[in-house]
Amino acid sequence: MSTAQEAGREALVERFIEAFPDAAGHEDELVVTRAPGRVNLIGEHTDYNGGFVLPFAIDMDVRLVVRPRDGSGVRITRADTGESAAFELGPFPAPGSAWHDYIAGTAWALRQHDQPVGGFDGLLLSTLPIGSGLSSSAALEVVTAWALSAPRGPSVPPLEIARIAQFAENEHVGVMCGLMDQFASACGVAGHALLFDCRSTEWQAVPLPRDLSLVVIHSGVSHGHADNAYNDRRAACERVVAAAAAADPSVTLLLDIDMERLHACRGRISASDHDRAHHVITENERVLDAVEALRADDHASLGELMAESQASMRDLYDITCPEIDELVALTIEAPGVVGSRMTGGGFGGCTVSLVQ
Ligand code: ADP
Ligand code: MG
Questions:
Q1: Using one digit for the tens of pLDDT, what is the confidence trace for 165-199?
Q2: Mutate which of 137, 169, 181, 352 to test ligand 1's pocket (most atoms within 8 Å of Cβ)?
Q3: Are 305 and 287 contacting, i.e. CB atoms less than 8 angstroms apart?
Q4: Are 218 and 178 in contact (CB under 8 A)?
């Protein structure tokens, strides 16, 4: 461990003792973990359709300091607001989407995956903006899964941590997100984006261009109330799968069909569902093309692919908003910008630009 990390740990331990004075003298029992947020370079809403995504972990993160306790009681304090929550770990926790439900849900998800989890005190600190499309929710679940699995058993592999974290968000919080966010937070590699095949869960790290910077800009619009719209988009994809499966039962995911087979479904799906599927199918191709462009250091193609992705999210998947569209239009005009698009689930949040 580096000196900087040790210094970081010392400060966190000090803050933990301020929040939980009875931990004084028990510093060696404290577990400090971190999980980063993520930005997706390209490949939006492809993950739950069995496609490819290309996220990278960022240097803003969520940290959790935990002191395991006997019994099943949990006390948790968040450093940013000073709010506290207390609950018991039980076999059937009531689902919810309050901030502490992400923690309770992950503890429950770990137990559902045969990980021994007991009571604990926890202090939560974060440098990640919340509800901005940088996946503070996934980082919170992943950091909780790391922290609670660390003290009590053999270490859990990163991809399994991601699956458990996703299970918590799906089954406890009720957001039907794919695996991308939790995967990127748990498996991130410095200086690389991660090409992730959401169907096979195989992945590889793809070096990011050293001569380009990644600039992420918040639109000022929080996507906080977009859960219904997100679930609506998933439902549209499922309707198209059902229509295609009627002709060919081997179709189980949207990315089992290509544009030709989508066109063949025309009479059986609405025009809007056709647009949604059109976005997903072409966006998936753009991810693979972007990886090729990255490997070839082909900036012009990267810029074009990002522009096509942005137009498709705006016109076909209908997940951008005026502020995001304006921000992309402004950034693309700025000197040195190779490409710009919205990143994340949509309805606000951030743009990502590749900049010389
Ligand atoms: P995103 O993942 O894009 O940041 P979400 O709406 O999916 O946005 O998740 C945000 C929610 O996650 C917050 O409303 C809160 O409940 C929880 N959360 C994330 N980070 C923190 C944190 N540092 N402290 C408390 N709650 C957090
Ligand atoms: Mg989230």
A1: 999 999 999 988 889 999 999 999 999 999 999 99
A2: 137
A3: no
A4: no
